[in-house]
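Weekly modeling sync, notes
Attendees: S.R. (lead), two postdocs, one rotation student

Agenda item 3: backlog of single-chain predictions. S.R. asked that every request posted to the team notebook include the full sequence so nobody has to chase files. The rotation student volunteered to paste the first one in as an example of the format we agreed on. Action items at the bottom.

Example entry:
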Amino acid sequence: MARKRGISDTKLALINLLQKERFRAVPAAERVLFLPHCLRKPKGCRGETTEEGLICKHCSPDCAVNQLTSYATSKGYRCFVVPGGEMVFNLVEKHRPRAILGVACHHEMGQAAERIGSKESTVSFAYQGVPLSKTGCVDTRVDMAAVKAVIDMEPDPTPVMVERAPAPAHSRRIPWRIGAFAAATVAVLLAAFLFIPPMLAPISAPAKTGQPELSFSNPTAVNTVDGNGRPMVEVTVAVRNFGPGEVRGVRINATAYYCGGKFNPADGGGAQGVVINRPIAAGGLEDVTLRVRVHSYNDTSILIEKTVRGMTEVVGYIESRKSVFIIDADVIGYSTSLVSGRQANLTFSVFNSEKIRTAGSLRIDASSYTSINTHYSSVEQDLPGSLARNDTWTQNLLVGVSVSDPGQPTFVLELYEGSASSPTDTVTISG
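Predicted structure, as returned to the notebook:
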């Protein structure tokens, strides 16, 4: 049964882009490489399991773990082969690297992000991630050239300061549906998925000598209402000062976006700023809470910015908890007929945790893509009847599949509300 990935390919690509120069500025001797246990050869491995993960014995020349640890070590990296996010957290706290290169499945990346981004974490680091190209927890694979390309990143003698990230716009459609990745598509992606996972430090080059370095971790959003019953989102951000000195006058701003633009209701809601007037000492931690008016709990995202000494930077981009979403989806099977050609039978369920939904207020758009990510066919289905709170809409759909494609197709299910042009939820299924 397919589930949503912990970190999507698009978000990971954006994270890598925003963190690239910060990662590049760290010498190899202060970087670590994390590899998953499942990347080793499933049979004949003689690696030794220790409290710091698997110690590779270099027993198989064609083993990815052997090749990558040998290559990274020759460049000055420390390497750890680990089973999951908890050990990653412990090793990061123990060795305190300035930069991390992580190889994992999307689910494990998401878990590690949540664990390392917790308030317990005391380490600020740059990050680059390479997802597994074949998952499944055993005999997995990764693009070796992609990992080595990150390992080979050399420090830039001229650090780059990113003063302000692009303003966001909500997600539009699946990138490959648009066609070629032209410059306009890149701009939309940069705006649409500007969500920095909690395990990442600020989007900037290392702080200048004598200036405190701040980390903005663990951004969360909780749905609530104001005194008139209108939807609100309560945003909490943990601000940590890594020193060397204290910092004053940090301002945190939270702005709501809806369907690609700022939400500015007539009563002035939709944005709030809080200034931390008291000084934050080196090693200190402050929680900042902001309440932001939103249009609804779906199709809404919140931009988090900080302002210090007149310079404003984006430090997070989160989506409030969805009240209606796809909880599972799968491919039941395939059929072929002279009339319809080859079709895939998809099943999906949509869960509604909020108010009752009327017929036609929700829509599922199911699309099929070839093995080279070319769009092939689409079909839509409206909610046929009412959907009560805490109830589930379950249905099957038949979607056309290319007969000539020798590889595995991919299916994308998108959930829309009313006439919204941006999907509320998206699930990708590998055929």
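Discussion: group reviewed the output briefly. The helical segments are 9-24, 64-75, 85-95, 106-116, 144-151, 175-178, 183-192.
Action items: rotation student to repeat for the remaining queue; S.R. to check formatting next week.
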